[in-house]
């Protein structure tokens, strides 16, 4: 049986519904597709959001550094790519990439016709078809809204199974269909791919095979508990959509949080201060505090094996706040969304590199380090750009 992934950049589940209605209708109704309605990203950008966890079962921080600016960087060929296991099982691995410059309506027509062709010519008779996106839109105007914030974190993901698989493994398909409204990530998809490697024994392997994701993933052919939390699924607070936040009006806390966020961002470019400007606060859009869920504090496992009856008899309390600040810096009008771990008793603010999002376009602003240090592009405004801007403004003033 073949496994085919067709991936799309920056497409949330809601954007898929809005922009690809013909494709979605055909996939669900004609191909029997199953959409994951609670599918979360795990980080920022294509690699962290899902591609690396899907293909290796790991986050970038779990693996040796492969960044081009690291003198001890390793070759990514040594990463535990799942296609190596597919190759050992007799599969031929093929990868292709294309860039579509079509409007949504044209893409919808082209994509649905492509799927019809695959079905008509019997390519799907023995193929698991996966339609997926890495994340939702990250830098368009909608990203500055609450809707856009949620859509970035909830990408499209769908499975289509050949009729023979549905017929021969009904329990597995039924379980995946049941999981479609549960919290899922690419860690779960990675575990699912492992089960597909030995699909003839899927009812056995799905329950007995050891974890390939450090316990963060559950095969979609097994039941995912309704009570599953983001922490249990490996989703950091910054990316979790299952949380409730409240606005903070304490100006001193707003100022301290914004300073903590910018201090960390500036620390990443400190070694390149001859090229990157020290960013200053322009203004704070908002500061939110994660509302304490007392039920979660008291959660102490499940009372039944299906996870339908949670046990709320625990006694855990916490003295840690999670804050999320949205701000603009200058020069360059960079928009950032940063989640901060706040320890009030110690007056300490902690910012993880995985909890910082640049949510507007940076264009050519980081051109001076774009090639040598590409991972710093969201955080660098080049001094040469500042000089160019000053010279242009001076010239206009003289005219």
UniProtKB/TrEMBL annotation:
Pfam families reported in the protein's UniProt record: DUF229
What InterPro entries does this protein's entry cite? Alkaline_phosphatase_core_sf, DUF229
Query: This protein's superkingdom?
Result: Eukaryota
Its Gene Ontology cellular component terms are: extracellular space
Q: Which PANTHER family match?
A: FI08016P-RELATED (PTHR10974)
Name of the protein: Sulfatase N-terminal domain-containing protein
- Report the source organism: Plakobranchus ocellatus
């Amino acid at each position: 049986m073949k496994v085919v992934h067709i991936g799309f950049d920056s497409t949330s589940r809601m954007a898929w519904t809005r922009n690809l209605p013909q494709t979605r209708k055909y996939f669900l109704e004609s191909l029997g597709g199953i959409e994951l309605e609670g599918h979360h990203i795990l980080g920022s950008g294509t690699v962290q959001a899902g591609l690396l966890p899907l293909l290796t079962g790991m986050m970038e921080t779990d693996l040796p550094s492969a960044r081009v600016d690291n003198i001890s960087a390793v070759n990514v060929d040594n990463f535990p790519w799942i296609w190596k296991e597919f190759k050992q099982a007799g599969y031929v691995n093929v990868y292709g990439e294309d860039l579509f410059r079509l409007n949504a309506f044209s893409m919808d027509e082209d994509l649905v016709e492509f799927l019809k062709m695959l079905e008509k010519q019997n390519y799907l008779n023995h193929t698991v078809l996966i339609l997926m996106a890495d994340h939702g839109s990250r830098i368009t105007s909608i990203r500055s809204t609450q809707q856009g914030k949620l859509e970035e974190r909830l990408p499209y993901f769908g499975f289509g199974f050949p009729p023979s698989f549905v017929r021969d493994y009904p329990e597995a398909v039924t379980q995946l269909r049941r999981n479609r409204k549960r919290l899922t990530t690419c860690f779960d998809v990675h575990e699912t791919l492992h089960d597909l490697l030995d699909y003839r024994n899927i009812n056995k392997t799905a329950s007995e095979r050891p974890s390939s994701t450090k316990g963060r993933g559950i095969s979609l052919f097994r039941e995912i508990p309704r009570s599953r939390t983001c922490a249990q699924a490996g989703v950091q607070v910054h990316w979790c959509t299952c949380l409730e936040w409240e606005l903070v009006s304490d100006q001193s806390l707003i100022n301290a949080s914004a300073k903590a966020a910018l201090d960390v961002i500036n620390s990443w470019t400190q070694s390149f201060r001859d090229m990157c400007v020290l960013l200053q606060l322009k203004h704070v859009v908002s500061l939110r505090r994660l509302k304490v869920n007392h039920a979660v504090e008291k959660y102490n496992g499940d009372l039944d094996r299906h996870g339908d009856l949670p046990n709320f008899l625990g006694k855990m309390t916490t003295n840690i706040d999670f804050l999320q600040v949205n701000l603009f810096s200058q020069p360059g009008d960079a928009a950032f969304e940063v989640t901060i771990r706040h320890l009030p008793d110690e007056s300490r603010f902690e910012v993880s590199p995985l909890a910082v999002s640049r949510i507007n376009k940076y264009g050519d602003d980081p051109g001076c380090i774009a090639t040598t240090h590409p991972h710093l592009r969201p955080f660098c405004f080049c001094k040469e750009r500042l000089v160019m801007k000053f010279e242009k403004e001076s010239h206009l003033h003289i005219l």
